[in-house]
Amino acid sequence: MEEASLKIFQSQVLPPFSLESGSIHAFLGPFAGQNKKRFGNTLLPEDPSTLPFIHSDEIDLSLFGDTTKIFRAFPPTKDRHLAWLSRVENSMHFAWVETGISEFIQLAKFDLHYFDPQMLLSAIFFWNRETRAFEFPCGFVCPTLLDIAAITGLEPTGERFYPDLFEEEISIKETSISWDKKTYLAFINAHIGDPDTLVSPSEHIAFLMYWLSACVFCTPSLQVPKYYYILAQALHLKKKICLSKLLLASLYTCLDEASESLFREFGPRNLSGPLWLLQLWLNAIFEKKLSLTSSFTSTCALEGARLTTLTPRKRSVDNFAKYIDAILSFTEFTKDLAPFIRSTLLGPPWLRQNNQIWNITPDSTDMWFGFLSWDVIMSGMRQKDVRIYPYQPQLFARQFGLCQIKSLPLRCKESIDADICVETGNYEEVLDFILRLDKQLHLTPCSFSPSFLVSKCYLRWWCEYYVDKIVDFDDFLRKLINSPLSSSQGPKQSGTYKNQIIIY
User: Fold this and answer.
1) Where is the Aminotransferase-like plant mobile domain positioned along the sequence (predicted)?
2) Is the pTM of this model over 0.85?
3) Which of 169, 385, 443, 449 is the right S-S partner for 380, CB 3.0 to 4.6 Å?
């Protein structure tokens, strides 16, 4: 590549290229050069403690027999809050539309409380805490901001939410919110207004606090904590908070914690966070491979609503083998792993009409820049709980219909990691340092054909990462299939399954 072109592509999100056949495609940039001789993985420092659980020498399925305790923090049944949601929606619908959360709140009307524990755990087995990605045979995959937009209707743009920096414009002391009724049902009963009365600001904020606690971030205490007040108040005041990035960062946090807990002697307990989002995303990518079906006839035009009806209802420890086998069958990247770039997508018009990157309109440039550009995302409602993550869509180019090149890190591990907490509250200074304002990216729309191609350099890079990882998965799956465990009665006996190392 000529030096002039290379300099341009070093800041471009969409570097186009042509094949000998004359077909035009595009990489997800920026393009920083693809060294053919040195293809070491600078993105993945060798830290054995962050390897996915599937690399473990021993896998004891008896640790995963009691899934009720493991996933007790899933959203409650819709019947508990449906009456309150309907009452508040009648008064606040247009405010929700203006704030950009109307479609998202509709999801709470559906069966978010249903989950398939074996599907969730099987996926978590493949989670890498270093890259925040699932290691499938074809490469890294993970929910992106495009997936979140399709599932929830949330835009990838908006104001960052900085814990402890948003002002309390409506004093919490002036509201009628009762803090001695924190459990979900008690909180609903204490704050739902009479049918013939108007929804007050206090009731609206209380509802948003409940919704954020129970249906969005799924707190481990199964209660409505006070620290959601500031975010609920900001939404009540119609502030354009970028909930999609806050939600994705929270998913990273709970997947990191879930993956780490798999290695504990007693196994995972009370996994919290938006794992319902993982369930819906898995439903989307497994829909055809596992022949998941439903009779979805709802008037809610949102992918997330449809996906809730695909969650398998039959739970069995034997399903571990089925789901792991399904993951391992992704030896090549297929359109199953990019379920939301199809032309039949359900969802809000701003996304449904602009969900294919090769047809970017002027009005959708900002949206696609949010989907495709590097960023820093944060989770946590309190300063002491802040965790910072890099959003690196260049790892998942093919999920957008773009070609995959060797991925480069947003920052080296020493500069950006989830353990970086902002003790002084100076978030802007930290973000400026990480995002390197002298390295600003640009999105120039161009016409090209979608493709799941990868560069040779990417293949060398990927193979090197797995060069010493060899596993006999036929034997592993056979042991899973012959597992004596029963999901209905819990484990009958402890069974430890020796696992060698993986190669794809």
Assistant:
1) 100-462
2) yes
3) 385
